[in-house]
Amino acid sequence: LQLAFTAALTLIIVIVLATTIGAMVPLNLHRFGIDPAMATGPFITTLNDIIGIIVFFVLSTLLYNP
After folding, report:
1. Rounded CA gap, 52 and 60, in Å?
2. H/E element holding 1?
3. pLDDT bracket for residue 44 (50, 70, 90)
4. CA–CA separation, 50 vs 58, rounded Å?
5. What is the total count of domains within the chain?
């Protein structure tokens, strides 16, 4: 049950962060003069994967080690 709670909470946090990152990265790339269409896909996907793994491990550590 604790693993399911950790996975569900991670999923919620990652979805919210992915939405925010997906909206902000193209705007910031455009601001710096980089074509957002070329760099957005791979960059956002990689960033979301890394953030998802970090969030899962941090939540697991916090929930399993009281």
Report:
1. 12
2. none
3. confident
4. 12
5. 1
